[in-house]
Specification:
InterPro entries: APC_suCDC26. With 85 residues, the protein is an all-alpha fold. It has helices at 13-42, 45-49, 54-65, 76-80.
């Protein structure tokens, strides 16, 4: 195996400015998210999450992640199509 000298990385002013701008963007997003969480918990959603009813907890989680379950078809014709024997 051939050995070579380590590559030298240089930190440029443009790189530092880009890093600072991205870090500020992430901090503002984090603060906005925290503000939304604080407003959401003051509306009483936090109390609903602590209730013992599993359906309401499951519904709250589904709403939070944006999952909308569709009812499953119960008839065999909808599962296998319209085959005739």
């Amino acid at each position: 195996m051939l050995r070579r000298k380590p590559t030298r990385l240089e930190l440029k002013l443009d790189d530092i400015e880009e890093f600072e701008s991205i870090r500020k963007d992430l901090e503002t997003r984090k603060k906005q998210k925290e503000d939304v969480d604080v407003v959401g918990s003051s509306d009483g959603e936090g109390a609903v999450g602590l209730s013992s009813d599993p359906k309401s907890r499951e519904q709250m989680i589904n709403d939070r992640i944006g999952y909308k379950p569709q009812p499953k078809p119960n008839s065999r014709s909808s599962q296998f199509g319209s085959f005739e024997f």
